[in-house]
Amino acid sequence: MDDLRHTIEEEPEDERSTEGEVADVADRVAAFTDARARLVAEAEISSRDGSTDAAEEPSPQRTEKAVETARDALFQKTTLPTVSDTERRRRSTIETRRDSDPKKPSPKASKLAKQPKEPKEPKKPKKPKAPKEPKAPKEPRQWRKPKEPKKPKEPKAAKEPKAAKEQQAPKEPRQWRKPKAPRVAKELKTPREPKAAKEPKAAKEPKAAKEPKAAKEPRQWRKPKEPKKPKEPKAAKEPKAAKEPRQWRKPKEPKKPKKSKEPKASKESKRAKKLVGLKIGASQIAAAQVINNGAPALVEVVREPLEHGVVVAGELRDPETLSAALKRFFELHKLPKKGVRLGISNNRIGVRLFEIDGVTDTRQLENAIRFRAEEVLPIPLDEAVLDYVVLEDGVREDGVPVKRILLVVAYREVVDRFLQACRGAGLEVVGIDLEAFALLRSLAPPTDSSPGGGALVAVAVGHDRTTIAVSTGRVCEFARVLDWGGWSLNVAIARELDRAPSEVESIKRQLSFSNEDAVVDGLTPEQVAKTRDGVQRALAAFAREVVSSLHFYQAQPGALGIGEIVLTGGTAHMSGLPEEVGRLVGVPVRLGDPFARVKVGRNVGDHAQHGSLAVAIGLGIED
Question: Model's pTM, two decimal places?
Answer without folding.
Answer: 0.56
